Amino acid sequence: MTTARTIRVGLEERAYDILIGRNLLERAGQEIAARMPGARAAIITDANVAALHLATIEESLKAAGIQGTAIRVPAGEQSKSFPVLETVVDAILAARLERRDVVIALGGGVVGDLSGFAAGIVRRGMDFVQVPTTLLAQVDSSVGGKTGINTAHGKNLVGVFHQPKLVLADTGVLDTLPPREFRAGYAETVKYGLIDRPEFFAWLEANWQEVFAGGEAREHAIAEACRAKADVVARDERESGDRALLNLGHTFGHALEAATGYDSSRLVHGEGVAIGMALAHRFSARLNLASPDDYQRVEAHLRAVGLPTKLSDIPGGLPGADRLLEYIAQDKKVSRGALTFILTRGIGQSFIAKDVPASEVLAFLEDSLKQ
Amino acid sequence: MTTARTIRVGLEERAYDILIGRNLLERAGQEIAARMPGARAAIITDANVAALHLATIEESLKAAGIQGTAIRVPAGEQSKSFPVLETVVDAILAARLERRDVVIALGGGVVGDLSGFAAGIVRRGMDFVQVPTTLLAQVDSSVGGKTGINTAHGKNLVGVFHQPKLVLADTGVLDTLPPREFRAGYAETVKYGLIDRPEFFAWLEANWQEVFAGGEAREHAIAEACRAKADVVARDERESGDRALLNLGHTFGHALEAATGYDSSRLVHGEGVAIGMALAHRFSARLNLASPDDYQRVEAHLRAVGLPTKLSDIPGGLPGADRLLEYIAQDKKVSRGALTFILTRGIGQSFIAKDVPASEVLAFLEDSLKQ
């Protein structure tokens, strides 16, 4: 028997539990059967994750009497596209699943975002369970109901809000995660400290090695991150206000992902966020909002764990500042043409800054490209 | 100056007005500007409707200071598809519209369903205005927030619930509607009488010629239909209960549309619903739920206005009863494998019948194919 930490996302009739602990894959069937009696399942996964974990979850579903159909998509960000979405939707319909049956996302952020979108639109909304297999997905994308795909115009510009009925974050599966992927997810973990939990940031500075090693510290960090995210989501489910704080580091980060053509050999999402958070703190200091000590502390910690913090850390060269600014302006966190950024007054004191002058951003990007 | 009837759809923070009257296209700009100050617009329409009405609405937007981009899709049911959805989404993004800008659907049910789905998924939900130009869309599809596209597995199996911010039903535009299209929309109007408003059905029996001729009776009929739909939607926005009553005639109707390959030269949606309503009343009599007098009265009225009521009214032949049953079983109004139908105890006494035995449906279809 295993124990798991449980975090409740308080969204009234859409409230759900996040379970965090080892060996949750083996318990997936019983946890789902208890919450969704009689449901059949489609398990969306990619080839890499399927090789490691599909058999485990299939056995668990079978043992709980749940009929399951596996649907495989190609691994990688390219699967967050209209053609792959259509393939997944068709496969769910071909399996004759109904509105009260369940779509299970088994994988990282790509599989979760894509599957959640499919679950949100088949029959105008099916039940949905997230089984995130990366640290990034466990601390961020699997919680909160944002789903979507990318288009030529940018990342995550198309999707729906569709909350899962359950999130199973099996911390044991992270043992097989490549170190680079673990670090990328760690960047999103750090984010919660930088938004409004300075004591959590300090705890990570002191304990990051134990988090990377696994065990109790890792579970604590994931639980803290999920709790932080659940709090924000419960306050502002559809991002009309506070939830935008979760975009700390993401406006710069998304622009960098777009500028590198979503080429994961050059930059993965969490690395973009790491650089984006470092830039957001530097930019805040430049605007005299925060002390330079803060950005130095942030950069030092990100560098200590092996994350990039500067534009020059991205291999292969970047376009000019003008073009980067265009990517930022096309990003969805633009309101009525004004540039909106998450800036900070110090560690754990982030805030939503509207009407940031484009000229300031441009000058800052020009300087940043030289560093 | 024109006057319009206003019906409020009571959905709390998602509540909105339906305006019904002549010359509303000319007022579109001012009505939108009053409710969504500062918004820019994308107008989704098809070639047929564009030729008749696009210039009018564009001028109206311009006069109200609203910047508008027209996006044209091919006319016809085939546009409710993933490829056309992707085209529309890309065009909205290319116009750089943001979350608080507005997507305007100018057209019939196809344009409305497609545009509403696009508005529901671009940036996870943009504002949306319906300007329905067919009777069918004015009394049914433009109200209630159901959006979607078709797939090889059936009609409307993919979509979202996304309520408009405003519906402008210009009854004058119906003057240019082909008679067959007007009759098809009339079938959905009759539906509200058959569901739970027997006095409205009796009024239509007495006044249908005036409704077809235009003027006051037409506006009254459209307003009654919208009020009936608004009441149901306000009670059950996401179709977890009562809203299924709106599917009266649709389970048979959708199966017939699928069986004729969505070929509008053979059968349009409203005609499928007319036959479906006649069949639902006949089937109810066969199951001894209602008197044969009722189905005879329903069929007599539908025939009087020129609508089909029998399977043999569909040109070009149909597949066998087995295959029709398969189409019914794949329809989305299936719950856990049991067949759900809207049946009736008489005019205006429809109810949701769950667990209808497939064998009864099959035998009924076999007999109906002989008539």
UniProtKB/TrEMBL annotation, chains A, B:
Pathway: Metabolic intermediate biosynthesis; chorismate biosynthesis; chorismate from D-erythrose 4-phosphate and phosphoenolpyruvate: step 2/7. Transmembrane segments: none annotated. Its EC number is 4.2.3.4. Keywords: Amino-acid biosynthesis, Aromatic amino acid biosynthesis, Cobalt, Cytoplasm, Lyase, Metal-binding, NAD, Nucleotide-binding, Zinc. The keyword tRNA processing does not apply. GO terms for molecular function: 3-dehydroquinate synthase activity. The keyword Aminoacyl-tRNA synthetase does not apply. Residues 71-183 form the 3-dehydroquinate synthase N-terminal domain. Residues 185-334 form the 3-dehydroquinate synthase C-terminal domain. HAMAP family: DHQ_synthase (MF_00110). Belongs to the sugar phosphate cyclases superfamily. Dehydroquinate synthase family. Catalyzes the conversion of 3-deoxy-D-arabino-heptulosonate 7-phosphate (DAHP) to dehydroquinate (DHQ). This is 3-dehydroquinate synthase. It comes from Chelativorans composti.
